[in-house]
């Protein structure tokens, strides 16, 4: 069991590219921390520095209370599971799982005991005699996890371990990994570019962009109170809508010629900082837009609808810009239908035009 600490960690590759910028992160023991961000934002580089497969350019990494900067990967007591499972094709599942333990000269009986225990947790007892090519993608993934579990690491590092699986299996493995985390009571760090995986699996999420941490918080906080426009747009599918608008001195917000009330938290902030008559980006999630029948809303025209079982996504246009709202699927809309919309005042986000920071912070 171990907590992790990264202080002022930077990574500049030999070609001068800075992949990680001033990372400051505390990961308590037993946390399921998810690193999420777009391709190339520095997730894998950070994970590889924690594993010891990559040096830090500056900054310190602690596992438990131990500074590990100069400790080799094999002595860091971590296990890494990659997207590419890298099982040895000529070895059985049992031998694949035993390999690392044999290298460490673990007694035979103990190897067997640990493998049987891990195989039971993962439900792969009946596969121990098979070779990797005789396994499905999901089974191979479990073996790769099993190989990590038997080493009893203090920290599990996982880099997009589910991305080779089909959509259904991915959903299934997601819940299995959450259960595994509960069973093992070990610190997990999980890298993904998939915001749904991040939202469903993480006890906390670290959102990264261009090598820098944007926000570290529980999924609910990240979703309801994103710190800036990047996090607001990255987390959530379909993504948050952004409108140009301003705060007027009624005090209300004005957007597309329509005035709408502000909630009390934003109102207090506006009063405190005297933000009247200033333009802002207004963020609203698709599910927080309501249809309005009294003629007081913003007028839009339906472009496309998507039926998703209980929900209906409506893509609509206002003054040439496309937005999206979510409603229940009992309603029917067609291309060209006129709609009128309002925002749920409790769910409005305001972002500074220059800094792109949320007014909730
Ligand atoms: P993905 O989701 O695509 O795997 P990532 O967030 O894991 O992306 P990294 O693999 O950490 O991203 O890469 C971060 C940045 O560093 C990228 O722009 C990448 O091109 C760059 N990079 C990675 N390895 C090197 C290297 N050896 N030399 C120079 N630049 C590198």
Textual characterization of the structure:
With 361 residues, the protein is an alpha+beta fold. The chain folds into two domains: 4-234, P-loop containing nucleotide triphosphate hydrolases (Rossmann fold); 241-351, OB fold (Dihydrolipoamide Acetyltransferase, E2P). It is built from nine helices and 20 strands. It has helices at 43-51, 93-103, 108-122, 137-149, 167-184, 195-201, 219-224, 229-234, 264-273; strands at 4-12, 18-27, 32-36, 58-63, 66-67, 78-81, 155-159, 187-192, 204-209, 212-217, 241-248, 252-255, 258-261, 278-284, 289-291, 298-308, 311-318, 321-328, 338-343, 349-351. The strands form four sheets. The protein has a six-stranded mixed beta sheet with strand order 6-7-8-3-9-10, sandwiched between helices. Strands 13-12-11-14-20 form a five-stranded antiparallel beta sheet. A hairpin with a 2-residue loop joins strand 9 (204-209) and strand 10 (212-217). Helix 2 (93-103) packs parallel to helix 4 and helix 3 (108-122) crosses helix 4 (137-149). The longest helix has 18 residues, at 167-184. The model has no long low-confidence stretch (mean pLDDT 93). The protein binds adenosine-5'-triphosphate.
């Amino acid at each position: 069991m171990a907590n992790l600490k990264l202080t002022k960690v930077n990574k500049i590759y030999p070609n001068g590219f800075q992949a990680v910028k001033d990372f400051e992160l505390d990961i308590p023991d037993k946390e399921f921390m998810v690193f999420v961000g777009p391709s190339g934002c520095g997730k894998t580089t950070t994970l590889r520095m924690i594993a010891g497969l990559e040096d830090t350019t500056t900054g310190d990494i602690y596992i438990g209370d131990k500074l590990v900067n100069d400790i080799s990967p094999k002595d860091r007591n971590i296990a890494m599971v990659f997207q590419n499972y890298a099982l040895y094709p000529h070895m059985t599942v049992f031998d694949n799982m035993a390999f690392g333990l044999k290298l460490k000269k673990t007694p035979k009986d103990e190897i067997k005991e640990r493998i049987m225990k891990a195989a039971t947790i993962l439900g792969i007892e009946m596969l121990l005699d098979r070779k990797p090519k005789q396994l499905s993608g999901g089974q191979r993934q479990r073996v790769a996890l099993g190989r990590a579990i038997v080493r009893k690491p203090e920290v599990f590092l996982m880099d997009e371990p589910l991305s080779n699986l089909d959509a259904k299996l991915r959903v299934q493995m997601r819940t299995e990994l959450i259960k595994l985390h509960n069973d093992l009571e070990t610190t997990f760090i999980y890298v993904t570019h998939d915001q749904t995986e991040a939202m469903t699996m993480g006890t906390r999420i670290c959102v990264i962009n261009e090598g820098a941490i944007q926000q570290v918080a529980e999924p609910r906080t990240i979703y309801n109170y994103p710190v800036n426009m990047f996090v607001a747009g990255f987390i959530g599918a379909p993504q948050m809508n952004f409108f140009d608008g301003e705060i007027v001195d009624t005090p209300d917000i004005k957007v597309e010629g329509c005035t709408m009330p502000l909630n009390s938290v934003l109102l207090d902030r506006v009063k405190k900082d005297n933000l009247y008559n200033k333009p802002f980006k207004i963020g609203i999630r698709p599910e927080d837009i309501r249809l309005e029948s009294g003629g007081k809303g913003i007028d839009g025209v339906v472009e496309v609808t998507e039926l998703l079982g209980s929900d209906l996504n409506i893509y609509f246009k206002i003054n040439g810009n496309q937005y999206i709202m979510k409603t229940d699927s009992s309603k029917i809309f067609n291309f060209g239908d006129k709609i009128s919309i309002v925002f749920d005042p409790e769910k409005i986000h305001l972002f500074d035009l220059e800094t792109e920071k949320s007014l909730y912070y």
